[in-house]
Each structure stands twice: as C-alpha cells, then as structure tokens.
Write a structure and sequence with these properties.
Elements lengths: L1 H27 L22 H12 L2 E3 L5 E3 L2 H4 L2 H13 L4 H12 L7 H20 L2 H25 L8
Antiparallel strand pairs: 1-2
Helix pairs in contact: 5-7, 6-7
Length: 174
C-alpha cells in the first residue's frame, strides 16, 4: 500500500510539473491566447522581433500616450500611430496587458512564482504593464497612489529578478 501511494504521488508530481511548465506562458497573460471573437487581434501578438522594433517600441513609449476613461490606450502622434506596429502596440496595450489593480496583483503573484526566465513576449508585456502602472501611479492621489505604487514596485522587482536570472552564469550541458 505504501509503495502504491508513493508511486501515485510521484506520478502526480511529475504530471503537475509537466503541465505547469507547459502552460505557464498562458497563465501570465491569458488574453494573449484567447482573442475576443469580435476582435481581429492575432493570437499571441508580439512587438519586438528585431532591434528596429525595440527602438520603435521605445519611441511609442516616449510619444505622448492617451488613456481614455474606458482605459483604452492610443498614441497621440499621428505619424507614429499610423505605423503597422502601432496597431500591434494598441492591441497588446488594450487587449492583453492587465489594467486593473486586482489583475496586476495577480500578474505580480504569478511572476514571483514563475520558474525560469520569462519568454520574450512575457517580458515585453510585463514591461508594458510596468509602464502603464507607472503612468497610473503618477495620475493617482492619496490612498490610490499608494496602491498603484505598490503594484509598480512589485512589477519592477519581478522584472529585475528576471533580468538577474537571465544575466547569471550559464550552465553548459555537455
């Protein structure tokens, strides 16, 4: 009986480890993997696939952004806004990243227990969530400012932790 229980626990542990690793990306940003039916959003959109696109993302963030009362983000600069990548930027900012405190806290908690290094798209989305949270912190007052600031700090610590892990010594498998 004892061996059967031990074998069952070991099997469950291995299954849980395989499932959690396989689906961990979907848990951080579930909206990226479940586009709305009424949306033309691509499945799992990504902004940065080259150095030029990283620089373009930087320009988007430096440009004046507009956040409407319904939390839709847009780029005020018409020239930048007309670029094809600006559409992907709006999609990720409006349909993928969390914009409410409970959702941002859930993301922070998931990031703190995330095994390994973040995938490129998850890092990008977390950085955009951090930028949005910084913007909301700057606009808030009183107790709300403290709540947004705490979320900002949690996201910053998660990104810093990921960068420290990714820049650490590599172990070669030979």
């Amino acid at each position: 009986m004892c061996w059967n229980t031990l074998l069952l626990l070991l099997l469950c542990y291995d299954a849980q480890a395989a499932v959690s690793h396989r689906w961990s990306r979907a848990m951080l940003f579930p909206a990226a993997h479940r586009p709305k039916r009424s949306s033309s959003m691509p499945l799992n959109p990504v902004l940065q696939s080259s150095l030029e696109e990283v620089e373009l993302l930087y320009e988007f963030l430096l440009a004046e952004l507009d956040i409407s009362p319904d939390l839709k983000i847009s780029i005020k600069d018409e020239e930048l806004s007309s670029l094809r990548k600006a559409s992907d930027f709006r999609t990720i900012c409006n349909d993928v990243i969390p914009k409410r405190i409970p959702d941002i806290r859930r993301l922070s908690a998931s990031l703190s227990s995330h095994p390994g290094i973040l995938k490129k798209e998850d890092f990008e989305r977390t950085a955009l969530t951090l930028a949005y949270t910084a913007y909301r912190t700057a606009l808030s007052q009183g107790h709300q400012k403290d709540i947004w600031a705490q979320s900002l700090l949690s996201l910053f610590q998660a990104l810093r932790h990921d960068l420290m892990r990714s820049s650490g010594p590599r172990v070669s498998s030979s």
